[in-house]
Amino acid sequence: MKVLKWIYAIFLTLLIVFPFYWVAISSFKLPNEILQPDLFPNAWTLQHYKELLVDTPYLINLKNSFIVSLGTMLITVLIVVPASYAIYRMDFKGRDFFYKLILATYIFPAMLLLVPVYQLMSTFNLVDSLWGLIIINVTFAAPFATWLMSGFFKAIPTALDESAAIDGAGTMRILFSIILPLIAPGLATIAIYAFVVSWTEFTFASILIASEESQVLSVGLSQIMGQYTVKWGWTTAGAMLTLLPVLIFFAFAGKYFVKGLTEGSVK
Amino acid sequence: MGKGAAEMGKGEAYGKAPVIPRPRQAESKSKRGVKFKHFLPYLLISPLVIWILLTIFIPLSTVVRESFYSAGFVGTESEFVGLQNYTEVLASGAYWASWKNSLIWVVGNGILQTVLAYSVALYLNKSSRISNTARTWMIIPWIIPTIVVAIFWQWIFNGSYGIMNAVLMNIGAIDQPLNLLGNPTWALPTIIFINSWHWFPFLTVLILAALAGIPEELYEASAVDGANKFQEFWHITLPSLQHISFALGLVGTLWMFNIFDIIYALTEGGPAGSTTTVSIQIYQEAFEHFEISSASAMSVVTALIMLVFAIVYIKFAAPKED
Question: ∠A176-A181-A186 over CA atoms, to 5°?
Fold first, then answer.
């Protein structure tokens, strides 16, 4: 029984880790060896990375992805925090309705919105613009972020705002000087969430952006994969470089993110 | 003030919202204060609500309108055709065939992800140093871009020189390399597996959160009563997870149903339409055949079916309050 448990644990670990290892290793293999199933390269090379950076629009895509992801992150935090403060800490008519309206966005398939959003964006001249992508990414990140915030707001005792109010602090001051510092982990969680949603988004990026100079990484990478299917060196190196920013980000903030996700979802 | 107190009861659904007493000495400012206070929550919530109305509800209304018109792509002339698009969609064999694929997709993902997520969660549900670190890093497959996931597995499963084929041929399990993604029978199950790999970590985090919420006393009490591990799992762990399972059954189904990118990146709906789910079908109708009206009608029919599913699911599967 115990042996079976160990075997299953090893199987699960391999299942998660092996694809990362295999693609990483492949990206360092020499072009004439990459198609051979050696578990370890005979010789290491950075050739694929160099070619990727020089011969493909990878760096432009990277820059665009950063702009879109940071923009989405910033706007999501800016509109979600006040809204969730109102929903979770204030009494007002229609609160229930607004809360449900925000969460109802999940019922509608994103696919439904593809055509009309394209039309909407083209009306406002936002097709092929990074702003168009930022706008729609915020739409997809914000409802779940609002939901995540609930756990963080509920963890703050209401007695705290009450005593501040008795001391004569205004609502806005309560929000900024008392609540904000306390929900800082929540802020970090939704910020990372918004960044990741935006960094990984593919569908809308593929129809809203047409020109190469506005293309983001996810779509750029799929084009590299599609156009040069033979070039597995570029494809695997591209995959690694696309992963890297997320991994670096995660190495610093991962612990808080997973903790925040856990806390936000139970309470 | 009376009104504020009356509304407090409603607020309890979200935890206690504070009723903030206004200090006496602010009497002179109080009129403006009352107005501002009344207005403030709407001010705080309005950016998000307006954002969502503009980017979801207005586009949705366009879809409904388009579905009654005949229109090609953006900028072409269109005329009112009544229910014609709908009768065509309802009679379309291709549309309903894509529903069959979508059902297999949703059920397959549901089962596989549940098995994987529960397995990992039960291993990691203790607070040792290793399991804490593993908890953080095992979520990585979920946060990486879908296209990277597609590349990972296409490289591993590749029909000519993938590592999986090399290993299987080495141990003598097969004589000929398998081209899983190019095979009409295997393509859909293969993508279900790949997508489950991508999504199960997220499910694991939520399950771990729910497991952490079970009071320790329950287990202690059952140990005193002499319950074995299996009884413990059946009578304590599973019932405690019913709320999260209910929520995931709904949200997860909707999420999985809507997935488009991984399928499109790996097979574009092929081979021979074997991986064409409803999402792929709508995309192809709109952006490959440029049949906007028909795609809109498909979207509306699909949304209505999903809505009925959500209502029925909530009515019959909601956990009973105890």
Answer: 110
pLDDT for A151-195, tens place per residue? 788 878 877 777 777 776 677 777 777 788 888 888 888 998 899
Beta carbons of B166 and A37 less than 8 Å apart = yes
The three-state DSSP-derived secondary structure of A98-150 is HHHHHHHCCCCCHHHHHHHHHHHHHHCCCCCCHHHHHHHHHHHHHHHHHHHHH
* B17: closest chain A residue by CA: A89
Do B303 and A108 lie within an 8 Å CB cutoff?
Answer: yes
Nearest to B205 among A36, A146, A258 (CB): A258
Measured torsion, CA atoms of residues B183, B188, B193, B196, in degrees rounded to the nearest 10: 160
Residue A44: pLDDT band by 50, 70, 90 thresholds? confident
**Who has greater pLDDT, A226 or A177?**
A177
- The residue with tokens 């996700």 is A261
pLDDT at A173: 75
Give the global pTM: 0.84
Chain A residues inside the 8 Å CB shell of B269:
none
CB atoms within 10 A of CB A259: 18
Tell me the C-alpha distance between A265 and A261, whole Å.
Answer: 6
When CB atoms are compared, the residue of B15, B60, B209 closest to A154 is: B15
Rounded-to-integer distance, Cα A213 and Cα A231, Å: 22
Q: Which of B22, B32, B43, B48 to mutate to test the interface with A (most CBs of A within 10 A)?
A: B48
**Higher-confidence residue: A34 or B149?**
B149
Contact B52/A207, CB-based, under 8 Å?
A: no
Nearest CA in chain B to A93: B7
Encoding tokens for residue B256?
A: 């999985």
Pull the structure tokens for residue B5: 């107190």
Matching residue, tokens 């908890």: B135
Count CB atoms within 10 A of the CB of residue B164: 19
The residues in A 36-75 lying below 8 A from B, measured between CB atoms, are: 36-37
Q: Measure the CA–CA gap between B218 and B228, rounded to whole angstroms.
A: 13
- The beta-carbon neighbor of B279 closest among A102, A111, A266 is A111
* A37 close to B163: Cβ distance less than 8 angstroms: yes
**Tokens representing B6?**
């009356």
Return all residues near A25 (Cβ < 8 A) that are at least 6 apart: A39, A40, A41
Structure tokens belonging to residue B170: 């080495």
